[in-house]
Amino acid sequence: MSSKNIWDNENLVKTLKNGGVVVIPTDTIYGIVGRAEEADTVERIYKIRKRNKEKPCIILISEIEDLKKFSVQITEEQGKILSEFFPASIPTSVILDCEDSKHAYLHRDTNTLAFRMPTDEGLRNLIKQTGPILAPSANLEARPPSENIDEARDYFGDFVDLYVDGGEIVGKASKIIRLHKDGTVSIIRL
């Protein structure tokens, strides 16, 4: 990716704010994204991606305060640990408890949600403008992640409202940890 802020794009902000689904480079790999607070948009992403309906997706946030939008209560111990990972030098998604049934469309009856705060300030600024975004990798279920926009188009065609080209990205999915209420951490994916 170039150093230019590819997320500073009026059309991208507008499309996301209007409930659209877009393919963008994230801080790790290409993602098929939409506003996490829009249940219809979330369902559309699951349908386009043919994602297993029982698997929750990672939500990208711009600041720790965004967790409140999802009824996530963090303990003092969790807060200390979160400050190490939000944002982290190595992209890290953190699974937290979310027992509010109004967010079942996101947590898929797991009563947990995974959040990541991107290290890239440009991407965090986009999220500040649009609100938190659901960001599974840009591929069909059980297929390899898109490494460029052409591969993403082959997967999704006209079902996506906008494609943002960040060049070739041969990245790696984020590390995933589970942060328990007592502040202990379980590593889910390295």
TrEMBL record:
Annotated YrdC-like domain ranges read 6-190
Q: Does the keyword Transferase apply?
A: yes
Q: Which GO terms describe its molecular function?
A: ATP binding; double-stranded RNA binding; L-threonylcarbamoyladenylate synthase; tRNA binding
Disulfide bond in keyword set: no
SUPFAM superfamilies recorded for this chain? YrdC/RibB (SSF55821)
Can you name this protein? L-threonylcarbamoyladenylate synthase
The family classification in the record reads:
Belongs to the SUA5 family.
The top EC class, named as a word, is transferase
Q: Name one GO biological process term.
A: regulation of translational fidelity
Grouped into one coarse class, the protein's main location is cytoplasm
Alphabetically list the UniProt keywords.
Answer: ATP-binding, Cytoplasm, Nucleotide-binding, Nucleotidyltransferase, Transferase, tRNA processing
What does the record give as EC number? 2.7.7.87
> What is the annotated localization of this protein?
Cytoplasm
Q: What Gene Ontology terms describe where this protein resides (cellular component)?
A: cytoplasm
Please give the Pfam families that the UniProt record associates with this protein: Sua5_yciO_yrdC
**Source organism of this protein record:** Candidatus Nomurabacteria bacterium GW2011_GWA2_40_9
- What is catalyzed by this enzyme? L-threonine + hydrogencarbonate + ATP = L-threonylcarbamoyladenylate + diphosphate + H2O
